[in-house]
Specification:
About 25% of the residues lie in helices and about 40% in strands. It contains two helices and twelve strands. A six-stranded mixed β-sheet has the order 1-3-5-11-7-10, with no helix packed on it. It has a six-stranded mixed β-sheet with strand order 2-4-6-12-8-9, with no helix packed on it. It is elongated, with a radius of gyration of 23 Å. The two termini are about 40 Å apart.
Length: about 180
């Protein structure tokens, strides 16, 4: 909401506020500036979202927003989001070299597929609220949390890929 903190916004707001005071005092015309301003702000946000012309809704390479896409991940310690869209987040190229590497996945009002490499030890912690999360071991959860550990992790010490996933009003399917 960076637009609300610019000189342009406050200049226009103060000019319109002054005009409404003059119209009310001289001509008896009452214009509800706050309601009208809020409505114009919502219209501006909607048009900007649809046209992609505003930095409020700037899409990063790690976010799928109102779209269908695929994100190929090749580095660790990142956060990836699927919001009001659908897509695949491919973690199959990540190979943790030393210790635990973390990746965060958020699926909100969307549908996602998380692709993991079966040869890489992985721990996936999923928190689910009004959602569906399916794991490679056949487990499904709708509410609560579940931790999936790949078979390679059992009894072995070494580099591990740790994924923290939140699924809210959506679905996440984890595949090998």
């Amino acid at each position: 909401m960076g637009f609300l903190f610019t000189e342009t916004f406050w200049g226009i707001f103060l000019i319109l506020f002054g005009i409404t005071i003059v119209l009310k005092a001289v001509f008896g015309i009452n214009i509800p500036l706050i309601k009208t301003g809020f409505a114009i702000l919502l219209i501006y946000a909607g048009v900007s979202m649809l046209t992609g012309g505003d930095r409020w809704f700037h899409k990063h390479n790690n976010t799928i927003l109102f779209n269908e896409s695929q994100v190929k991940v090749n580095r660790e310690n990142q956060e990836y989001n699927i919001i009001f869209g659908s897509g695949m987040i491919d973690l199959s190229e990540i190979k943790p070299e030393n210790g635990i590497k973390k990746v965060a996945i958020n699926t909100i009002f969307g549908s996602g597929v998380l692709k993991i490499n079966p040869d890489v030890p992985v721990i996936i912690k999923v928190d689910s609220v009004f959602a569906n999360a399916r794991f490679p071991d056949g487990t499904n959860i709708s509410f609560g949390d579940y931790t999936y550990r790949s078979p390679q992790k059992e009894g072995s010490e070494g580099p591990v890929l740790e994924v923290e996933a939140d699924v809210v009003f959506g679905s996440l399917n984890i595949i090998n």
